[in-house]
Design brief:
Shape of chain B: globular
CATH topology of the largest domain in chain A: Rossmann fold
Largest sheet of chain A: 11 strands, mixed
CATH architecture of the largest domain in chain B: Alpha-Beta Barrel
CATH class of the largest domain in chain B: Alpha Beta
Number of strands of chain A: 17
Radius of gyration of chain A: 22 Å
Oligomer: heterodimer
Distance between the termini of chain B: 26 Å
Helix content of chain B: 25-40%
CATH architecture of the largest domain in chain A: 3-Layer(aba) Sandwich
Structural class of chain A: alpha/beta
CATH topology of the largest domain in chain B: TIM Barrel
Number of domains of chain B: 2
Strand content of chain A: 15-25%
Largest sheet of chain B: 8 strands, mixed
CATH superfamily of the largest domain in chain B: Aldolase class I
Number of helices of chain B: 11
Number of strands of chain B: 19
Radius of gyration of chain B: 22 Å
């Protein structure tokens, strides 16, 4: 259908609507520019923590309607428009690119992986020391961003006002879950970067699993929030890519602008390893459907879901305690205190390096390599293939930086 | 499987079953239906036009956590040790219920999502955990040759051991038990409810009964103890030992033969054809009344050669008297890009099956189509006239055609 010239419904009239309804307007797009690329002029606005898109219809003879919708629900906008706006034409609105410019920091270091290790990470009792883990995190992040100031990387990742979700992994109970002290250190740096405490949510599938891993459930007040998807539920709408069709956690879709992935470095009896990419199984409602064939191509497909791909900014893999065999559940005989974190913005590169770490430990313990056991994590290569392009899995193309704590 | 269990069906069921009727007194005021979801609310609220309804959005759509609900039914109440599995070293187990044979590590679940390894012991999490319960005509299953005109007390739990891309009940079949609202209906209560609502059968249906086999067995025993029979609507993807034990308790079994192609089973169903064919043969040997449904999906399983091969296989292995229903596909779940099956395609499938010698070939999901009726294979006279799930005329007498006295296979009377 030929696009028609737009006459009356422009972003400035939408601006008036937004102000009338007491929205805080975040951005106004110039009319000619928007019309060149999109059918529907729109502005973004916020009320409280929720961001909205206010849009107008494209009509040949005047404005016949405007709409407001939460930004997180863009996937169903087409049906929303069809239901809401009588007489509207030109409904071929392109889905806005929610992949915000992930800062220069992101663009520069997509295939850079930092492995930071601290032999003195633990106190005499064997617990991870709060101060040491903060120092370890700082060294890893500064090395990743190639800066000297601990807060600088965080300022580049998160803008004030954005909501940050920290997706942990708590399947392994207290023995083999994302470390509470490490997550505390991440929160501390986010707070330092200007993110308000209540805009940070530490989450996983299940609140009871979070508690078993040592996290305290917090659902209100001026504090970092912590709860499972069992409390927030899953979206009604299915999203799909490739072989995957799933409902996403509402924590991801409605409570996160920025996602920080905090997996654990683990062996996995089916997938080979479970690190960054596989931790996204905790975002969907039906992970049990995607374990056949070593989770390939399902893990890659899950990570292609737009809400995940667009919001994921950083992976901080907890290797303070890692697992080289018998995962993903905790078996003390197969766990070791690696006292390290792996950080990267490229989850494929991080998984590639993490896999090598596990293989080295297996060799050291006299175990067969994963491919000899028939469970090499093939999904990592799939995630890097032309159909996914989620990152880099070729070792020579990954910049590996190893740092030791002082 | 296209026996829909949508929210409208749930509402329908609620109309038929007074709130609280399904449960004991402690749950008497909890309907099975979920409250109106946000999407439905928005669609209703905004349909008059966005401009006039902007105030609806003045409150942020809530993703804030709900307070922890006071559990009225403990998960422990539904968790019963599974009956078909083997313990392995390192606290692993191997499920023996279906041909998938999942090896499940500690704290993990099998493919179905309703069986969990807890410290090396495998549990079903859905025993008595009923997420859908309706009183349906038996024709809805569909059973056309089994107690026609009677009612079936129909139940489901969450979960399925395949992942059909066209599933109409994916909200429950592809969910984990904790993701759908459910009520505690133990086997004896199910049997009581069947009697209370004048149902001659308990039907295990909507999702996949294979995954709640323990509940199926116990409910069938409870039903038989009070004179209520059991029927099951299944994909037939079940291990042979479990099949004999679980479906051996059934009085009739309807199997969804989703295609006659392994590649279709692999790509569209996430399962296998061969074990389903073995199930059909075993059911025949066990002497169970069996009907087959074949959902015809345009372009994917609607070729003449596939219809022909399937009809020949049925004739050769099950005989000519097993009823087969070619049903119409409707876009749903992950297969929304295909159209509804043309009626002409269903008629072509029926013509091919009948030309191969099958006697009772029906067309389903097309209310009012003449191929919903039963015709005598000998004199060709109409014996049962149906309109949707309703019986308009029933001519069969003592299991035979009243005109030519030919025996009509089926279970026509209780």
């Amino acid at each position: 259908m030929q696009r028609r010239a737009h006459t009356t419904c422009n972003p400035y009239c939408l601006l008036s609507v937004a102000r009338l309804l007491d929205f805080a307007v975040e951005g106004v797009f110039s009319l000619p520019e928007r019309l060149q690329n999109h059918d529907v002029p729109r502005i973004t606005a916020a009320r409280g923590w929720q961001r909205y898109i206010i849009f107008g219809c494209l009509c040949s003879d005047g404005c016949s309607g405007v709409g407001v919708m939460p930004e997180a629900r863009i996937t169903s906008r087409r049906s929303f428009l069809a239901n809401c706006i009588g007489g509207a034409v030109g409904m071929a609105a392109a889905v806005p690119d929610t992949v915000e410019a992930a800062s220069q920091f992101a663009n520069q270091h997509q295939a850079r992986v930092v492995v930071a290790q601290d032999a003195r990470l633990r106190d005499a009792g064997g617990s991870v020391d709060d101060e040491r883990v903060l120092g370890l995190l700082d060294r890893a992040m500064m090395s990743l961003a190639e800066v000297d100031e601990p807060l600088h990387p965080w300022n580049s990742l998160v803008r004030p006002g954005q909501m940050v979700g920290i997706k942990v992994n708590t399947l392994g109970g207290r023995g083999l879950s994302s470390n509470v002290q490490l997550v505390g250190a991440i929160c501390e740096r986010l707070l330092g970067a200007g993110v308000r405490a209540q805009q940070i949510v530490v989450w996983d599938r299940d609140s009871a699993e979070l508690e078993r891993a040592g996290f305290r459930i917090r659902t209100g007040g001026n504090q970092v929030q912590c709860y499972g998807t069992d409390r927030a539920g899953y979206e009604e709408d299915l999203v799909s890519f490739g072989a995957v069709g799933s409902r996403l956690s509402r924590i991801l879709t409605q409570r996160c602008d920025v996602l920080i992935n905090v997996p654990v470095l683990k062996d996995h009896d089916g997938a080979g390893v479970t690190i960054a990419l596989k931790n996204m199984y905790g975002v969907i409602h039906n992970p049990n459907k995607y374990h056949p064939n070593g989770c390939d191509p399902y893990i890659a497909d899950v990570n292609m879901l737009s809400e995940i791909r667009s919001k994921l900014r950083l992976t901080i893999c907890d290797a303070t305690t890692a697992c080289f065999e018998g995962g993903p559940s905790y078996k003390p005989e197969f766990a070791w205190q690696h006292n390290a974190v792996l950080v990267a913005q490229d989850p494929v590169a991080l998984d590639t390096i993490g896999w090598q770490v596990i293989e080295r430990k297996r060799a050291e313990k006299g175990l067969k390599a994963l491919d000899v056991e028939g469970r090499a994590p093939r999904y990592i290569a799939t995630a890097a293939d032309a159909a996914h392009r989620l990152g880099v899995n070729i070792l020579k193309h990954i910049t590996l930086v190893e740092v030791e704590a002082v | 499987m296209q026996e829909n269990c949508s929210s409208s069906r749930l509402n329908e069921a609620q109309a038929m079953l007074p709130a609280g009727a399904l449960t004991d007194e402690s749950n008497a005021n909890k309907p099975l239906t979920a409250p109106l979801d946000r999407r439905a609310f928005l669609m209703c609220a905004m349909s008059v036009g966005a401009a006039g309804s902007l105030h609806r959005f003045t409150e942020p759509l809530s993703a804030a956590p709900l307070p922890a609900a006071t559990p009225t039914q403990s998960d422990a109440q539904f968790a019963v040790e599974a009956r078909f599995y083997e313990k392995l070293p390192n606290k692993k187990v191997q499920c023996k219920l279906c041909p998938r044979g999942c090896t499940v590590g500690d704290k993990e679940r099998g493919y179905c999502g309703v069986r969990e390894n807890r410290g090396g012991v495998y549990y079903t999490l859905v025993h008595s955990r009923v997420c859908a319960a309706h009183v349906d005509p038996v024709e809805k299953k569909p059973f056309f040759h089994y107690l026609p005109g009677t009612l079936a007390f129909s139940m489901a739990t969450a979960g399925c051991n395949v992942d059909c891309k066209f599933c109409q009940n994916w909200e429950i079949s592809q969910a984990r038990p904790e993701q759908v609202s459910a009520q505690y209906i133990p086997p004896k209560r199910a049997a009581e409810l069947a009697l209370q609502y004048h149902c001659q059968t308990i039907a295990y249906t909507y999702s996949e009964p294979v995954v709640f086999s323990e509940f199926v067995m116990d409910s069938a025993d409870a039903g038989h103890a009070v004179g209520v029979r059991s029927i099951v609507v299944s994909n037939g993807y079940i291990a042979q030992d479990a099949l004999r034990e679980v479906y051996g308790r059934m009085d009739a079994v309807k199997v969804d033969l989703k295609s006659f192609s392994e590649s279709y089973y692999r790509r569209v169903v996430s399962g296998e054809l061969k074990p389903v064919l073995e199930t059909l043969v075993t059911l025949r040997k066990l002497g169970k009344w069996n009907e087959i449904v074949y959902l015809v999906v345009p372009t994917l399983n609607d070729s003449d050669s596939e219809f022909t091969e399937m009809a020949r296989w049925i004739k050769g292995n099950l005989g000519t008297d097993v009823p087969i229903h070619f049903t119409q596909f409707h876009p749903d779940y992950l297969l929304r890009n295909l159209p509804i099956t043309p009626v002409a395609t269903l008629e072509r499938a029926r013509a091919i099956a009948m030309s191969e010698g099958l006697h009772f070939v029906y067309i389903g999901n097309v209310p009012g189509h003449p191929a919903e009726n039963t015709y005598c294979p000998q004199c060709k006279r109409m014996l049962v006239q149906r309109a949707g799930f309703e019986i308009r005329q029933m001519m069969i007498r003592n299991g035979a055609c009243p005109f030519c006295k030919a025996k009509i296979p089926g279970v026509w009377h209780a």
